[in-house]
Fold:
Amino acid sequence: MSNVVILIIVLVVVVLVLAAAAAAITVAARKRRDHQQVEAREQAGALRREASERSTDVRQQELRAEQADAEAELARLRAEQAEQGAHAERLDAAHAQAEQEDVVRDADRLDPDVDHRGDDYRASHRTTSTESVEQERHDEGPSRP
Structure:
């Protein structure tokens, strides 16, 4: 055999060995990839089962959150109503105070001892309760017949 034939045979054997090695590497890589995909599918399935099992808990939490929102809205409405009620009471009190002051001013206009036309005039808020009348009588001494 000639050197050329031996060289060709060696080259063919080297090419076949390299092709076999490449095929083995490709097969091993494919098996590894397939194995990883199987593991990934199993892991994904386990995660989906876990998520499914927790869905009831999640829904219950959502319902509690919705209930808390509704309670908060109700509290806001009640607070708004209370604020409106307080505002109405303040208006009523201011109106009552103005009426009281009008009565006092009318009384001051009638009272000859009160100078209601002076620059320093301010309506005196004298009480007319029985207690204050009795206190004034007590302060003045015995009543005169």
In short: The helical segments are 3-110, 130-140. The mean pLDDT is 85. Residues 3-110 form the longest helix (108 residues). The CA atoms of residues 63 and 69 lie 10 Å apart.
